[in-house]
Write a structure and sequence with these properties.
With about 190 residues, this protein is an alpha/beta fold. The chain has helices at about 10-20, 40-50, 65-70, 85-95, 155-160, 180-190, and strands at about 5, 25-30, 55-60, 80, 100-105, 115-120, 145, 165-170, 175, 175-180. The chain has one domain (about 5-190): TIM Barrel (Alpha-Beta Barrel). Helices cover about 30% and strands about 20% of the residues. This is N-(5'-phosphoribosyl)anthranilate isomerase.
């Protein structure tokens, strides 16, 4: 069964929707932009989140101390590196027993990363779709795919790439706000594939 991560959660309403839908992972963004959270917000949301759903902190070229502080606070249980972080950052964080997702653009995949998971994304969370049919993906690590996924293209993306996890944020929003029904529908669909 393919797993699913709902990312870019911003409110307690988002958490309620996720608790109802039961995705496999929930994502909090600490990297600026529209979905950015401060640590105190993330802590409140983590407390309201179903304890069975691990939370992932998304960072872009953040200082290691900031990532460690966020992890140690209990707000997150995994870290997603979405910038141009060096492998040394991956191994330093792993020494603290933190599972790491390393994100690459399709043409810059590093299958030799020490990260626990590899994510392929079209860019910087800009909603740009990826043509999954043109990718040659070779990795022995669990693969996560992201990039303008939604209810209309998720089946094809999963069939083409056979990922371990799919990651959605904007694809479950309506007018920039997480849509509970879209979250429920896509989690059910992905878990059925």
């Amino acid at each position: 069964m393919t797993k699913i991560k709902i990312c870019g959660l911003m409110t307690l309403d988002d958490i309620r929707a996720v608790n109802t839908a039961k995705p496999d992972l929930a994502g909090f963004i600490f990297a600026g932009g529209r979905h950015h959270l401060e640590l105190d917000q993330a802590l409140k949301m983590r407390q309201a989140l179903d304890p069975a759903i691990p939370s992932v902190g998304v960072f872009v070229n953040a200082p290691i101390n900031e990532m460690l502080k966020t992890y140690r606070s209990g707000a997150i249980s995994m870290i997603q590196l979405h910038g141009s972080e060096e492998e040394g950052t991956v191994t330093t964080l792993q020494k603290n027993n933190i599972p790491i997702i390393n994100v690459f653009k399709p043409n810059q995949l590093n299958p030799d990363t020490k990260a626990d998971y590899i994510m392929l994304d079209s860019g910087t969370g800009n909603g740009k779709p990826v043509d999954w049919t043109k990718l040659q993906i070779t990795t022995d690590k669990p693969l996560i795919i992201a990039g303008a996924l939604d209810i209309n293209n998720i089946k094809q993306a999963i069939k083409t790439t056979k990922p371990t996890i799919v990651d959605l944020s904007r694809g479950v929003e309506t007018e920039g706000i997480k849509d509970p029904q879209k979250i429920i529908d896509i989690v059910k669909l992905v878990h059925s594939i």
